[in-house]
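User: I've been trying to design a sequence by hand for this structure and keep getting stuck. Would you show me what you'd pick, starting by listing the structure so we're on the same page?

Assistant: Good idea, let's start from the same input. This is the structure you sent:
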């Protein structure tokens, strides 16, 4: 922060070092009421990464050895090491790193950190099962009409429109910020090469920490509980609603190799899985403090939130289903028009924004198909799909059941 005045610090937080307006470089202690010491570091992304969500928050927990949650983005190791230094630690003080999920702003730093330390690497067992596959192999295996149409939208836009962030496209401008760690290929190679020392399943406990499998934003997402703190990765975020995944199917050879509990891909992919995982957090009890992987501090203020944020996020998606139904009723019945209508409050400039919005629209359409409220027609001989309402509103009860009275 520039200047000498600092914002209010919430109870339970002690600032070790102030950082930027968005939390880059901020280092804090988090009070656990007599529990183990816990620290947070706002780990700045590298130059060639998206800045949209600010830093990835890495947490350091001194409990039965030292655990690091989320080393952060590919290429951001120097920023993490710098934060550890503020805590009087070096990477070699870390006994194990755990990733909340397989997105590159969380697990991208795993290999670099492993190299600089003797830390073990722990992740959910689906992280380990997916890691031999590139994102392309994992996701392109399942071509539903909606996803084919989404690809067409992207192609049309790439031919005609500007491209905003969709991967590392900016060159480092020689500023003091470190260059990044490379693009998707580097990331995919890193994931397939790194060794998981311990693959975790739901309910795993170690020391005072309990690991819950909360799939939906991504299938391998973990929420980690320590007393009244819940480390939510991207499952629950302040200020913004995490992007739900689409309801992908597993590639056949992967599906056959997975433990039986993951054979039904609908349990781990898609909006329904996500809403159920949010409900699970609603059931954990009250008085929990959310330690998110993004937006803990933003626009110069701490953005503390609690378990009620899970309920708010469910309610948000119920409303978004209402808006989608309304959009289709009003004639926005192809994917791109429906997406633009649903996100009309936000300019969808460039392929990255439009594609993210389209994929989020698809996750809602998929839920409405499952509840029998919408049908998707693949239009032969013309690019596009046609969304049709069946007249029922079953989703209101299905999602409503996940909301506390
Ligand atoms: Zn994520």
């Amino acid at each position: 922060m520039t200047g000498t005045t600092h914002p209010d610090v919430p109870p339970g937080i002690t600032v070790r070092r102030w950082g930027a307006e968005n939390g880059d470089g901020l280092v804090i202690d988090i009070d656990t009421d007599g529990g183990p010491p816990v620290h947070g570091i706002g780990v700045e992304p590298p130059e060639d990464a998206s800045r949209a969500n600010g830093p990835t928050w890495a947490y350091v927990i001194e409990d039965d050895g030292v655990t690091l949650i989320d080393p952060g983005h590919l290429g951001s190791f120097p920023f993490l090491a710098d934060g550890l230094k503020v805590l009087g630690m070096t990477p070699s003080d870390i006994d194990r790193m755990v990733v909340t999920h397989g997105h590159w702003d969380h697990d991208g730093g795993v290999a670099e950190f492993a190299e600089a330390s003797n830390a073990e690497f722990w992740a959910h067992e689906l992280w380990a099962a997916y890691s031999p596959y590139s994102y392309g192999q994992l996701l392109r295996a399942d071509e539903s009409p909606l996803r084919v149409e989404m690809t067409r939208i992207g192609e049309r836009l790439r031919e005609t429109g500007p491209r905003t962030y969709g991967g590392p496209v900016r060159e480092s401008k020689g500023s003091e910020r470190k260059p990044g760690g490379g693009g998707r290929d580097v990331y995919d190679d890193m994931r397939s090469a790194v060794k998981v020392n311990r693959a975790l399943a739901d309910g795993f406990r170690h020391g005072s920490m309990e690991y819950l499998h909360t799939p939906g934003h991504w299938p391998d997402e973990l929420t980690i509980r320590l007393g009244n703190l819940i480390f939510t990765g991207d499952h629950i975020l302040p200020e913004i609603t995490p992007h739900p995944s689409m309801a992908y199917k597993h590639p056949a050879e992967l599906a056959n190799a997975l433990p039986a509990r993951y054979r039904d891909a609908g349990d781990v992919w898609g909006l329904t899985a996500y809403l159920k995982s949010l409900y699970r957090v609603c059931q954990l009890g009250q008085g929990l403090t959310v330690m998110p992987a993004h937006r803990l501090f933003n626009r110069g203020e701490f953005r503390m939130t609690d378990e009620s944020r899970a309920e708010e996020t469910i309610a948000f998606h119920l409303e978004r289903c209402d808006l989608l139904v309304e959009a289709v009723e009003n004639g926005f019945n192809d994917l791109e028009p429906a997406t633009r209508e649903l996100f009309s409050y936000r300019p969808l400039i460039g392929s990255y924004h439009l594609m993210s919005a389209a994929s989020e629209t698809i996750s809602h359409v998929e839920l409405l198909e499952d509840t029998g409220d919408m049908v998707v027609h693949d239009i032969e001989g013309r690019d596009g799909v046609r969304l049709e309402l069946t007249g029922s509103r079953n989703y209101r009860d299905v999602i409503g059941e996940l909301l506390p009275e």
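That's my pick for every position. To get oriented when you compare it with your attempt: Residues 101, 103, 217-218, 234 surround zinc ion (CB under 6 Å). The chain has a mean pLDDT of 91.
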